[in-house]
Amino acid sequence: MTTATAPLSPETGISRLQESLFAWLEPEPDTQSAPTPAAEPEQKTTPPPELPAAEVEAPDLSHIWVVAAEVEVTPKIASVADYRGSFKATEGQRVDALEVYCRSCRRPYDEVRGDDCAAKIDNTHLIGGDQSKRAKRKVPTPPPNARIITGGTINRRGISAYMSGVSRPPR
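Predicted structure:
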């Protein structure tokens, strides 16, 4: 097994890459002459001026448009698409667009064209609005002569759930 090495500098004995890596450790050359400590009284050092803040980039609020399509395929391609979840279309094949909508906010192109994507601003529209203001679900009342019998708990986590078939698809 061989390893590649970078050529070493004859002056320092280290590679050029290492020199550039550790260049920040070397002190910067002083452009002004340093005053002697006895000549001048001790001066307070001022912190370096802060660098201007970088411009904050505005978040991308544009829609991601997708098309729900209808494509006619052969039985062989249909079986491949069913198994893999995708297929290759032939060149020049015409695809009928059923609907054009935004992938994020799930709203149609006609309604939100030119607006910002609501899902990137606030996603509450996908969960039915503000949950604190939404009406609670009504629990159906049982018939007057019915009796409620509590059942056992079902373990949905861990190896015992897997073994009992809770998390596996049925065969």
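Summary: The mean pLDDT is 75.
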